[in-house]
Protein backbone atom coordinates (compact mmCIF):
# COMPACT_ATOMS: atom_id res chain seq x y z
CA UNK A 1 0.00 0.00 0.00
CA UNK A 2 2.82 2.43 0.88
CA UNK A 3 4.52 1.69 -2.48
CA UNK A 4 1.28 2.43 -4.32
CA UNK A 5 0.89 5.77 -2.50
CA UNK A 6 4.47 6.79 -3.28
CA UNK A 7 4.11 5.74 -6.92
CA UNK A 8 0.89 7.71 -7.30
CA UNK A 9 2.51 10.81 -5.80
CA UNK A 10 5.48 10.54 -8.15
CA UNK A 11 3.21 10.12 -11.18
CA UNK A 12 1.14 13.16 -10.14
CA UNK A 13 4.29 15.26 -9.70
CA UNK A 14 5.65 14.17 -13.09
CA UNK A 15 2.34 14.88 -14.82
CA UNK A 16 2.18 18.34 -13.23
CA UNK A 17 5.71 19.17 -14.38
CA UNK A 18 5.21 17.81 -17.89
CA UNK A 19 1.91 19.62 -18.41
CA UNK A 20 3.72 22.96 -18.43
CA UNK A 21 3.08 26.11 -16.45
CA UNK A 22 4.52 29.47 -15.51
CA UNK A 23 6.78 28.22 -12.69
CA UNK A 24 9.95 26.60 -14.00
CA UNK A 25 12.72 24.83 -12.12
CA UNK A 26 15.65 26.25 -14.05
CA UNK A 27 18.10 23.48 -13.20
CA UNK A 28 15.81 20.71 -14.50
CA UNK A 29 13.66 22.56 -17.03
CA UNK A 30 10.53 21.29 -15.29
CA UNK A 31 7.42 23.48 -15.42
CA UNK A 32 4.57 23.61 -12.93
CA UNK A 33 1.11 25.12 -12.95
CA UNK A 34 1.26 25.92 -9.22
CA UNK A 35 4.06 27.65 -7.36
CA UNK A 36 3.63 25.29 -4.40
CA UNK A 37 4.25 22.30 -6.66
CA UNK A 38 7.52 23.84 -7.84
CA UNK A 39 8.57 24.53 -4.23
CA UNK A 40 7.70 20.97 -3.22
CA UNK A 41 9.80 19.61 -6.07
CA UNK A 42 12.85 21.42 -4.66
CA UNK A 43 12.35 19.91 -1.21
CA UNK A 44 15.51 20.25 0.87
CA UNK A 45 17.71 21.00 -2.12
CA UNK A 46 18.75 24.19 -3.89
CA UNK A 47 17.06 25.55 -7.02
CA UNK A 48 15.87 28.60 -8.92
CA UNK A 49 12.18 28.95 -9.72
CA UNK A 50 11.78 31.23 -12.73
CA UNK A 51 8.36 32.88 -12.94
CA UNK A 52 6.81 33.81 -16.26
CA UNK A 53 5.06 37.15 -16.85
CA UNK A 54 1.53 37.16 -15.51
CA UNK A 55 -0.73 38.04 -12.58
CA UNK A 56 -1.18 35.30 -10.02
CA UNK A 57 -3.46 34.68 -7.05
CA UNK A 58 -0.98 31.99 -6.09
CA UNK A 59 1.08 31.55 -2.92
CA UNK A 60 3.54 29.05 -1.48
CA UNK A 61 5.12 27.83 1.76
CA UNK A 62 8.82 26.91 1.73
CA UNK A 63 9.61 24.43 4.50
CA UNK A 64 13.23 23.60 3.62
CA UNK A 65 16.06 24.10 1.17
CA UNK A 66 17.48 27.11 -0.61
CA UNK A 67 15.24 28.62 -3.27
CA UNK A 68 15.54 31.63 -5.55
CA UNK A 69 12.24 33.05 -6.80
CA UNK A 70 13.11 35.08 -9.91
CA UNK A 71 10.92 36.85 -12.46
CA UNK A 72 11.75 35.97 -16.05
CA UNK A 73 11.50 39.71 -16.71
CA UNK A 74 11.63 42.09 -13.72
CA UNK A 75 8.29 43.66 -12.84
CA UNK A 76 6.17 41.33 -14.96
CA UNK A 77 5.43 38.57 -12.43
CA UNK A 78 2.73 39.93 -10.12
CA UNK A 79 1.37 38.19 -7.03
CA UNK A 80 -1.98 39.85 -6.43
CA UNK A 81 -3.85 39.16 -3.20
CA UNK A 82 -3.19 35.47 -2.65
CA UNK A 83 -1.92 34.35 0.77
CA UNK A 84 -0.98 31.04 2.39
CA UNK A 85 -1.66 30.15 6.04
CA UNK A 86 -3.42 33.50 6.44
CA UNK A 87 0.03 35.14 6.30
CA UNK A 88 1.64 36.00 2.97
CA UNK A 89 2.15 35.22 -0.69
CA UNK A 90 5.50 33.64 0.23
CA UNK A 91 5.85 32.02 3.65
CA UNK A 92 9.52 31.15 4.11
CA UNK A 93 11.06 28.87 6.72
CA UNK A 94 13.72 27.00 4.80
CA UNK A 95 17.47 27.51 4.93
CA UNK A 96 17.39 30.58 2.69
CA UNK A 97 15.45 32.39 -0.01
CA UNK A 98 16.27 34.90 -2.73
CA UNK A 99 13.47 36.99 -4.28
CA UNK A 100 14.17 39.02 -7.41
CA UNK A 101 12.12 41.09 -9.84
CA UNK A 102 8.69 40.23 -8.40
CA UNK A 103 5.68 42.39 -7.54
CA UNK A 104 3.51 41.75 -4.48
CA UNK A 105 0.31 43.73 -4.09
CA UNK A 106 -2.93 43.77 -2.08
CA UNK A 107 -2.06 41.07 0.46
CA UNK A 108 -4.72 41.41 3.19
CA UNK A 109 -5.51 39.00 6.04
CA UNK A 110 -7.92 39.31 8.99
CA UNK A 111 -5.26 39.94 11.66
CA UNK A 112 -3.99 42.99 9.74
CA UNK A 113 -0.54 41.55 9.00
CA UNK A 114 -0.90 40.27 5.47
CA UNK A 115 2.46 40.41 3.68
CA UNK A 116 4.11 39.89 0.37
CA UNK A 117 6.78 37.88 2.21
CA UNK A 118 6.59 36.34 5.69
CA UNK A 119 10.08 35.16 6.64
CA UNK A 120 10.04 32.90 9.69
CA UNK A 121 13.46 31.28 9.48
CA UNK A 122 16.63 31.46 7.42
CA UNK A 123 18.41 34.09 5.37
CA UNK A 124 16.54 36.28 2.90
CA UNK A 125 17.73 38.43 0.00
CA UNK A 126 15.24 40.66 -1.83
CA UNK A 127 16.30 42.49 -4.98
CA UNK A 128 14.41 44.79 -7.37
CA UNK A 129 11.01 43.88 -5.92
CA UNK A 130 7.85 45.97 -5.44
CA UNK A 131 5.50 45.69 -2.47
CA UNK A 132 2.34 47.78 -2.91
CA UNK A 133 -1.10 48.62 -1.59
CA UNK A 134 -1.36 45.99 1.12
CA UNK A 135 -0.74 45.63 4.83
CA UNK A 136 2.95 44.59 5.12
CA UNK A 137 5.62 44.28 2.50
CA UNK A 138 7.97 42.00 4.44
CA UNK A 139 7.22 40.70 7.94
CA UNK A 140 9.58 38.45 9.89
CA UNK A 141 9.58 36.23 12.95
CA UNK A 142 12.74 35.86 15.09
CA UNK A 143 15.89 34.11 13.88
CA UNK A 144 19.00 35.51 15.60
CA UNK A 145 21.30 33.35 13.45
CA UNK A 146 20.14 34.75 10.09
CA UNK A 147 20.21 37.97 8.09
CA UNK A 148 17.91 39.87 5.73
CA UNK A 149 19.02 42.06 2.83
CA UNK A 150 16.81 44.33 0.71
CA UNK A 151 18.24 46.05 -2.37
CA UNK A 152 16.77 48.29 -5.08
CA UNK A 153 13.19 47.67 -4.00
CA UNK A 154 10.06 49.74 -3.31
CA UNK A 155 7.52 49.70 -0.47
CA UNK A 156 4.49 51.76 -1.46
CA UNK A 157 1.01 52.22 0.04
CA UNK A 158 1.53 49.85 2.97
CA UNK A 159 0.53 49.94 6.63
CA UNK A 160 -2.45 49.82 8.95
CA UNK A 161 -5.40 49.42 6.64
CA UNK A 162 -8.21 48.81 6.03
CA UNK A 163 -9.23 48.40 9.67
CA UNK A 164 -6.42 50.14 11.58
CA UNK A 165 -4.68 47.04 12.95
CA UNK A 166 -1.16 45.60 12.69
CA UNK A 167 1.19 46.39 9.85
CA UNK A 168 4.30 48.29 8.99
CA UNK A 169 5.78 48.50 5.50
CA UNK A 170 8.90 46.55 6.53
CA UNK A 171 8.94 44.87 9.95
CA UNK A 172 11.86 42.68 10.99
CA UNK A 173 11.84 40.78 14.26
CA UNK A 174 14.77 39.41 16.22
CA UNK A 175 17.14 38.70 13.34
CA UNK A 176 20.91 38.97 13.50
CA UNK A 177 21.09 41.77 10.92
CA UNK A 178 19.06 43.82 8.45
CA UNK A 179 20.64 45.64 5.49
CA UNK A 180 18.55 47.95 3.26
CA UNK A 181 20.16 49.74 0.30
CA UNK A 182 18.89 51.84 -2.62
CA UNK A 183 15.28 51.24 -1.61
CA UNK A 184 12.25 53.54 -1.62
CA UNK A 185 9.49 53.83 1.00
CA UNK A 186 6.44 55.97 0.17
CA UNK A 187 2.69 56.58 0.60
CA UNK A 188 2.45 54.87 3.99
CA UNK A 189 -1.05 54.14 5.25
CA UNK A 190 -0.21 53.80 8.94
CA UNK A 191 2.43 52.33 11.20
CA UNK A 192 6.15 52.75 10.55
CA UNK A 193 7.93 52.63 7.22
CA UNK A 194 10.78 50.47 8.60
CA UNK A 195 10.67 48.79 12.00
CA UNK A 196 13.50 46.47 12.99
CA UNK A 197 14.40 44.52 16.12
CA UNK A 198 17.54 43.12 14.45
CA UNK A 199 20.71 43.50 16.51
CA UNK A 200 22.53 45.17 13.59
CA UNK A 201 21.05 47.65 11.12
CA UNK A 202 22.29 49.23 7.91
CA UNK A 203 20.09 51.59 5.92
CA UNK A 204 22.01 53.21 3.08
CA UNK A 205 21.23 55.32 -0.01
CA UNK A 206 17.47 54.93 0.40
CA UNK A 207 14.48 57.31 0.48
CA UNK A 208 11.56 57.73 2.86
CA UNK A 209 8.90 59.93 1.25
CA UNK A 210 6.04 60.57 3.65
CA UNK A 211 4.61 63.48 1.64
CA UNK A 212 1.64 61.34 0.53
CA UNK A 213 1.45 59.32 3.74
CA UNK A 214 -1.60 59.14 5.98
CA UNK A 215 -1.80 58.21 9.66
CA UNK A 216 1.89 57.31 9.58
CA UNK A 217 4.34 57.09 12.44
CA UNK A 218 8.17 56.84 12.41
CA UNK A 219 10.31 56.57 9.28
CA UNK A 220 12.77 54.18 10.97
CA UNK A 221 11.95 52.59 14.32
CA UNK A 222 14.60 50.58 16.19
CA UNK A 223 12.37 49.68 19.14
CA UNK A 224 14.99 47.78 21.15
CA UNK A 225 18.08 49.55 19.82
CA UNK A 226 20.72 48.36 17.33
CA UNK A 227 24.28 48.92 16.27
CA UNK A 228 25.23 49.78 12.72
CA UNK A 229 24.80 52.71 10.35
CA UNK A 230 22.05 54.82 8.77
CA UNK A 231 23.61 56.99 6.07
CA UNK A 232 23.07 58.86 2.79
CA UNK A 233 19.29 58.56 2.92
CA UNK A 234 16.63 61.17 2.22
CA UNK A 235 13.59 61.74 4.44
CA UNK A 236 10.47 63.85 3.83
CA UNK A 237 8.11 64.29 6.76
CA UNK A 238 4.45 64.54 5.74
CA UNK A 239 1.56 66.36 7.42
CA UNK A 240 -0.93 63.54 7.88
CA UNK A 241 0.78 61.88 10.82
CA UNK A 242 -0.30 59.69 13.71
CA UNK A 243 2.99 60.70 15.36
CA UNK A 244 5.00 63.66 14.04
CA UNK A 245 7.44 63.99 16.95
CA UNK A 246 10.37 61.89 15.69
CA UNK A 247 11.66 60.53 12.38
CA UNK A 248 14.21 57.92 13.57
CA UNK A 249 13.88 56.26 16.98
CA UNK A 250 16.40 54.30 19.04
CA UNK A 251 15.09 51.96 21.77
CA UNK A 252 11.64 53.52 22.43
CA UNK A 253 10.40 50.12 23.70
CA UNK A 254 13.41 49.54 25.93
CA UNK A 255 17.15 49.12 25.29
CA UNK A 256 17.22 45.32 25.13
CA UNK A 257 20.38 45.25 22.99
CA UNK A 258 23.34 47.52 22.43
CA UNK A 259 23.12 50.77 20.45
CA UNK A 260 26.62 51.88 21.45
CA UNK A 261 28.24 53.59 18.50
CA UNK A 262 25.23 53.48 16.18
CA UNK A 263 26.06 56.03 13.46
CA UNK A 264 23.42 58.20 11.75
CA UNK A 265 25.22 60.44 9.28
CA UNK A 266 25.13 62.25 5.93
CA UNK A 267 21.37 62.03 5.59
CA UNK A 268 19.06 64.73 4.25
CA UNK A 269 15.69 65.45 5.87
CA UNK A 270 12.93 67.95 5.20
CA UNK A 271 9.29 68.60 6.01
CA UNK A 272 6.54 69.22 3.47
CA UNK A 273 5.39 72.83 2.93
CA UNK A 274 3.03 73.96 5.67
CA UNK A 275 4.19 71.34 8.18
CA UNK A 276 2.89 72.96 11.39
CA UNK A 277 5.08 71.31 14.05
CA UNK A 278 8.68 70.90 15.09
CA UNK A 279 10.00 67.38 14.63
CA UNK A 280 13.15 65.60 15.83
CA UNK A 281 15.35 63.74 13.37
CA UNK A 282 16.75 61.22 15.90
CA UNK A 283 15.19 60.42 19.26
CA UNK A 284 17.06 58.09 21.63
CA UNK A 285 15.61 56.30 24.64
CA UNK A 286 19.00 54.84 25.57
CA UNK A 287 21.89 56.29 27.61
CA UNK A 288 24.40 54.77 25.18
CA UNK A 289 26.37 56.89 22.77
CA UNK A 290 24.59 57.34 19.43
CA UNK A 291 26.57 59.27 16.81
CA UNK A 292 24.45 61.79 14.90
CA UNK A 293 26.53 63.91 12.52
CA UNK A 294 26.72 65.73 9.19
CA UNK A 295 23.00 65.51 8.46
CA UNK A 296 21.39 68.17 6.25
CA UNK A 297 18.19 69.09 8.11
CA UNK A 298 15.51 71.44 6.88
CA UNK A 299 13.72 74.13 8.83
CA UNK A 300 11.66 72.84 11.75
CA UNK A 301 13.79 69.71 12.30
CA UNK A 302 15.82 69.34 15.48
CA UNK A 303 18.84 67.07 15.10
CA UNK A 304 18.79 64.92 18.24
CA UNK A 305 16.93 64.48 21.49
CA UNK A 306 17.41 62.07 24.37
CA UNK A 307 14.00 60.89 25.49
UniProtKB/TrEMBL annotation:
Domain of life: Bacteria
Matching InterPro entries: Pectin_lyas_fold (IPR012334), Pectin_lyase_fold/virulence (IPR011050)
Signal sequence residues: 1-17
Keywords of this entry: Signal
Record's protein name: Right handed beta helix domain-containing protein
Record organism: uncultured Sphingosinicella sp
